[in-house]
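Hi P.,

Sorry for the delay on this. The queue was packed all week, but I finally got your sequence through. Input first:
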Amino acid sequence: MNASPLVSLILPAYNAERHIGAAIQSILSQSFAEFELIIIDDGSTDDTVGVTSRFNDQRIRVLGNDGNRGIVFSLNRGIEEARGCYMARMDADDIARPERLMRQFTFMEDHPAVGLCGSWAQKFIAYGPRWTQRAQTSSAELKASLLFATPFVHPTVMIRRSVMDAHDLRYRDEFPAVEDYRLWCEMALVTELAVIPEVLLDYRVSLSSVTGAVYLDGKRLNDRREILLKLWSDYIEKTLGFTPNRERLDAHACFYDLRFARVSPDKVGAAHRWLDFLQQANGERKFFDGAALATVCNDVGRSLDVFSPADVARRILISLLGK
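Then the structure:
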């Protein structure tokens, strides 16, 4: 085993026997070789461990949890075990493009101020369509985008270990289903962000995924909204210096609510006024780049005004169950 890998890939797995072999092979086929692959088996009851054991490569480390402990526990365990100066995420059902690690490692080496780097991803449904999920690339627009949603596809990210350790940053249990989004908000306060405008990962979309399960369950959808309200409130407080009340938070969440149900014109109007207020508040605090925040707010504002047919097929099945 390499005594000092440059990159530690963290791959949590639970009952992933169908696809984890392809995911592992995509990592072993990387053009960049100085990595370790840490697989955390989260109490699988299928042959996940059996599949991983078929790969004879000293860069692979398989850790087993004492039962099904959940994604946050598994990710944080991977972080504690990681030995690389960079940590990269990978999911058990996705495929990394061969140049992924090389492109991200080189970018991070060339941009020492960046602590979090993602990429574009090509999403796909088995035997179905493919489409590219893009995001802004500048740190300024990414930080502003975090006011409303995560612009990062979780399994595309690479993180600078020194930033995580210096600020004691980890995934947090109190933000289930959006634990990654919360971490990006915390990182935005202390480091620069980036997205490489290239597809470096093929991301499998499935109704059985955690994200898909949330979108198809009304109670879990409402629970997720409440968690997001807390996340947005905290990020607004830390970036703009005030705590929004419930009325303002509901206006903030209007763009999110419209993805799942109709919203009254009065609420849409309140959301537009809230977007204007956010820009005014930033004029005093100046955490966000003004032009970047204006661009993001304009994009969100346009999304508020898109209606039917069937509200664009319920926003194309909730952006095809995107994160």
